[in-house]
Protein backbone atom coordinates (compact mmCIF):
# COMPACT_ATOMS: atom_id res chain seq x y z
CA UNK A 1 0.00 0.00 0.00
CA UNK A 2 1.56 3.23 -1.19
CA UNK A 3 -0.13 5.14 1.60
CA UNK A 4 2.11 3.53 4.24
CA UNK A 5 5.18 5.19 2.75
CA UNK A 6 3.31 8.53 2.52
CA UNK A 7 2.22 8.29 6.16
CA UNK A 8 5.71 7.43 7.34
CA UNK A 9 7.32 10.21 5.28
CA UNK A 10 4.91 12.80 6.68
CA UNK A 11 5.44 11.52 10.22
CA UNK A 12 9.25 11.47 10.01
CA UNK A 13 9.18 15.08 8.80
CA UNK A 14 6.96 16.20 11.70
CA UNK A 15 3.83 16.59 9.58
CA UNK A 16 0.42 15.21 10.53
CA UNK A 17 -0.55 11.88 9.00
CA UNK A 18 -3.52 12.73 6.76
CA UNK A 19 -6.18 10.02 6.62
CA UNK A 20 -9.66 9.90 5.22
CA UNK A 21 -12.86 8.96 7.01
CA UNK A 22 -13.25 6.80 10.13
CA UNK A 23 -9.79 5.48 11.03
CA UNK A 24 -11.22 3.13 13.66
CA UNK A 25 -13.51 1.38 11.14
CA UNK A 26 -11.31 1.49 8.05
CA UNK A 27 -9.06 -1.58 7.88
CA UNK A 28 -6.37 -2.91 5.59
CA UNK A 29 -4.20 -6.00 5.25
CA UNK A 30 -0.55 -4.91 5.11
CA UNK A 31 1.95 -7.28 3.52
CA UNK A 32 5.66 -6.69 3.04
CA UNK A 33 7.05 -6.74 -0.49
CA UNK A 34 9.40 -9.62 0.35
CA UNK A 35 6.38 -11.73 1.35
CA UNK A 36 4.67 -10.83 -1.94
CA UNK A 37 7.79 -11.94 -3.84
CA UNK A 38 7.90 -15.18 -1.81
CA UNK A 39 4.26 -15.87 -2.66
CA UNK A 40 4.72 -15.14 -6.38
CA UNK A 41 7.70 -17.48 -6.60
CA UNK A 42 5.71 -20.17 -4.81
CA UNK A 43 2.81 -19.73 -7.23
CA UNK A 44 5.16 -19.88 -10.22
CA UNK A 45 6.69 -23.12 -8.94
CA UNK A 46 3.64 -24.89 -7.52
CA UNK A 47 0.33 -23.60 -8.86
CA UNK A 48 -1.59 -24.74 -11.92
CA UNK A 49 -1.75 -22.40 -14.91
CA UNK A 50 -4.51 -19.82 -14.51
CA UNK A 51 -5.03 -20.52 -10.81
CA UNK A 52 -6.03 -17.44 -8.79
CA UNK A 53 -4.77 -16.60 -5.29
CA UNK A 54 -5.28 -13.80 -2.78
CA UNK A 55 -2.00 -12.36 -1.53
CA UNK A 56 -1.58 -10.59 1.77
CA UNK A 57 -0.66 -11.05 5.39
CA UNK A 58 -4.13 -12.29 6.31
CA UNK A 59 -4.53 -9.93 9.26
CA UNK A 60 -6.93 -7.00 9.42
CA UNK A 61 -5.45 -3.79 10.87
CA UNK A 62 -7.33 -0.55 11.54
CA UNK A 63 -5.78 2.66 10.29
CA UNK A 64 -5.47 3.83 13.91
CA UNK A 65 -3.51 0.66 14.71
CA UNK A 66 -1.23 1.42 11.75
CA UNK A 67 -0.57 4.92 13.08
CA UNK A 68 0.14 3.50 16.54
CA UNK A 69 2.71 1.09 15.06
CA UNK A 70 4.30 3.99 13.15
CA UNK A 71 4.65 5.86 16.45
CA UNK A 72 6.01 2.79 18.20
CA UNK A 73 8.74 2.03 15.64
CA UNK A 74 9.84 5.67 15.30
CA UNK A 75 9.62 6.58 18.98
CA UNK A 76 7.72 9.75 18.00
CA UNK A 77 4.11 10.50 18.88
CA UNK A 78 2.12 10.63 15.63
CA UNK A 79 -0.35 13.40 14.88
CA UNK A 80 -3.40 12.40 12.83
CA UNK A 81 -5.31 14.78 10.59
CA UNK A 82 -8.62 13.19 9.65
CA UNK A 83 -10.41 14.28 6.49
CA UNK A 84 -13.97 13.25 7.30
CA UNK A 85 -15.75 14.57 4.21
CA UNK A 86 -14.25 11.95 1.86
CA UNK A 87 -16.19 8.73 2.33
CA UNK A 88 -15.79 7.01 -1.05
CA UNK A 89 -12.93 4.81 0.14
CA UNK A 90 -13.47 1.12 0.88
CA UNK A 91 -13.74 0.42 4.60
CA UNK A 92 -12.62 -3.16 4.93
CA UNK A 93 -9.89 -4.88 2.93
CA UNK A 94 -8.37 -8.11 4.20
CA UNK A 95 -7.03 -11.04 2.20
CA UNK A 96 -8.17 -14.61 2.61
CA UNK A 97 -4.80 -16.33 2.23
CA UNK A 98 -6.02 -19.82 3.08
CA UNK A 99 -5.59 -21.07 -0.49
CA UNK A 100 -1.98 -19.92 -0.85
CA UNK A 101 -1.04 -21.19 2.60
CA UNK A 102 -1.99 -24.59 1.20
CA UNK A 103 1.02 -24.21 -1.10
CA UNK A 104 3.27 -23.50 1.89
CA UNK A 105 3.13 -19.69 1.95
CA UNK A 106 3.32 -18.02 5.32
CA UNK A 107 4.05 -14.29 5.61
CA UNK A 108 7.21 -13.63 7.57
CA UNK A 109 7.58 -9.86 7.92
CA UNK A 110 5.29 -8.31 10.54
CA UNK A 111 3.86 -4.83 10.13
CA UNK A 112 6.11 -3.42 12.84
CA UNK A 113 9.22 -5.07 11.39
CA UNK A 114 8.42 -3.82 7.88
CA UNK A 115 7.75 -0.28 9.12
CA UNK A 116 10.94 -0.30 11.19
CA UNK A 117 13.00 -1.28 8.13
CA UNK A 118 11.27 1.33 5.96
CA UNK A 119 11.83 4.06 8.56
CA UNK A 120 15.52 3.14 8.75
CA UNK A 121 15.80 3.17 4.97
CA UNK A 122 14.05 6.57 4.68
CA UNK A 123 16.12 8.23 7.40
CA UNK A 124 15.19 11.18 9.63
CA UNK A 125 13.89 13.65 7.03
CA UNK A 126 12.91 11.74 3.88
CA UNK A 127 11.63 13.41 0.77
CA UNK A 128 7.97 14.27 1.22
CA UNK A 129 5.49 12.44 -1.00
CA UNK A 130 4.32 14.17 -4.16
CA UNK A 131 1.06 13.89 -6.02
CA UNK A 132 -2.48 13.78 -4.78
CA UNK A 133 -4.62 10.80 -3.90
CA UNK A 134 -7.97 11.36 -5.59
CA UNK A 135 -11.05 9.45 -4.45
CA UNK A 136 -13.66 11.03 -6.68
CA UNK A 137 -13.89 13.06 -9.86
CA UNK A 138 -13.58 16.77 -9.19
CA UNK A 139 -11.79 16.41 -5.85
CA UNK A 140 -8.83 18.75 -5.44
CA UNK A 141 -5.97 18.93 -3.01
CA UNK A 142 -3.33 16.75 -1.46
CA UNK A 143 -4.46 13.78 0.57
The helix fraction, in percent, is: 25-40%
Shape-level CATH architecture: 3-Layer(aba) Sandwich
**pLDDT < 50 runs, ≥5 residues:** none
Strand content: 5-15%
**Count of alpha and pi helical runs:** 5
Account of the 3D structure:
This protein is mainly α and 143 residues long. It has 5 helices and 4 strands; from the N terminus they run H-E-E-H-E-H-E-H-H. The chain has a single domain, classed as Rossmann fold (3-Layer(aba) Sandwich). The strands form 2 sheets. The protein has a two-stranded parallel ribbon. Helix 1 crosses helix 5 and helix 3 packs across helix 5. The longest helix has 14 residues.
Could you list some keywords that capture this structure?
two-stranded antiparallel sheet; 143 residues; mainly alpha; Rossmann fold; 5 helices; two-stranded parallel ribbon; 4 strands
SSE diagram, text form:
Layout: H1 2-12, E1 17-20, E2 27-28, H2 33-46, E3 61-62, H3 63-74, E4 80-83, H4 98-101, H5 111-122
Parallel strand pairs: 1-4
Antiparallel strand pairs: 2-3
The gist of it:
By secondary structure, this protein is mainly α.
